[in-house]
Amino acid sequence: MKQNVIVVSDNTDPEFEKAIGKGLDEFNLQTSGLSDRRPLCVMVRDPDTNEILGGIVGRTSLGLAFLDLFHLPDSLRGSGLGTKILQAFEDEARERGCRSAVLYTISFQAPGFYKKNGWRSFGEIESDIEGVSRIFMTKKLY
């Protein structure tokens, strides 16, 4: 019998992601009767150039919103734009039927920003770097 080949890579392959997503969706549908995993992105574009300046990359699935990546350049921070982007993410998640959201941030990134916006910490994992940890946060959306 032939052995399956295991490949470890740091490159994202759309075909690979599609195959994994399809398998996961089929399993979720078979197990729970629901397969509703969808990307959820909120983008900020420059009004003159249409260049993407920042935003959120996340997803929704089975009533839960996952905020995976959130970035704004320094020049756009402190203006309230971050809160508006986060609110747009949360509002769309609610529209999709999500009752809760989850994320992790790094201790030197934005835990205070999320707390100010109603998120609460539910766990923390220290890294090998002194004083740096991953902070896991959640928010009820109903």
TrEMBL record:
<dbReference type="GO" id="GO:0016747">
    <property type="term" value="F:acyltransferase activity, transferring groups other than amino-acyl groups"/>
</dbReference>
<protein>
    <submittedName>
        <fullName>GNAT family N-acetyltransferase</fullName>
    </submittedName>
</protein>
<dbReference type="Pfam" id="PF00583">
    <property type="entry name" value="Acetyltransf_1"/>
</dbReference>
<dbReference type="InterPro" id="IPR000182">
    <property type="entry name" value="GNAT_dom"/>
</dbReference>
<dbReference type="InterPro" id="IPR016181">
    <property type="entry name" value="Acyl_CoA_acyltransferase"/>
</dbReference>
<keyword id="KW-0808">Transferase</keyword>
<feature type="domain" description="N-acetyltransferase">
    <location>
        <begin position="1"/>
        <end position="142"/>
    </location>
</feature>
